[in-house]
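Exercise 7 asks you to align residues with tokens for two separate proteins.
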Amino acid sequence: MTYLLEGGGIHPGNRALTWAFAIALFTAALPTPAASETREERRSRNCAYYREMVERALENIDTDALSSGFSHAHDGFVAGGCLVTGAACPKTPADFAFADLLTIMTVSANMGSTFTPFRCPVTERERRH
């Protein structure tokens, strides 16, 4: 049973109203980006977060095991302000571990899995099937 404050005391109340009030209080306390934040400012902020995530991920991955093409493409993504200019296609187990870790981190940071540059182009053979 839910209770609302009425006339100085606690009395049974409307459950939906109680939940609406609790949700309003909770969401009012959440930090939100400025309404005037542009897409470029949001991208820049997310890229700064992503750079921190990359540093943490690199502490847990054998960087020597990353393939050079994958590493080069990913470094280009970060150096270019996290704008996808080309795909970083994981090929080795270390590439996949790094990509998986960063994808999980970006999703946990509410940036979405599509923020990352991890994608592989479709080959001609795959197109035929």
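Second protein for Exercise 7:
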Amino acid sequence: MKKLIPLIACMFLLSGMSLRAQTKMTDEQRQETLAKFEEFKTKLNLTDEQETKVKSINSEFFNGLSTLKSSGESKMAKYKKFSALRSKRDAQMKETLNDDQYKEYKKFQSEMKENVREKRKQK
């Protein structure tokens, strides 16, 4: 679960929301993440309606993560709930985005995971 926290924080900021009180990101990291969100929006060529829906989907996802993070459940129980939250978000994104946008979204997620792994290796 500890390995997922940086990815989760990054994805939350990609939704355009602020996690300032819940994360320990520096201003530089925050700016980098916001720049990635702008890149994400540009790559997907989101309409205003889609952008609103994506922000809502991600907000719901990260509210669930916040609740999950503060729960006293076991790591396995948290992981199962995390997986369910992620699956729900992906299904909602698939409904919101067209096929090409969804493929690009999944590709972007994979790139973000790889970036997090690389940063973790550098520490």
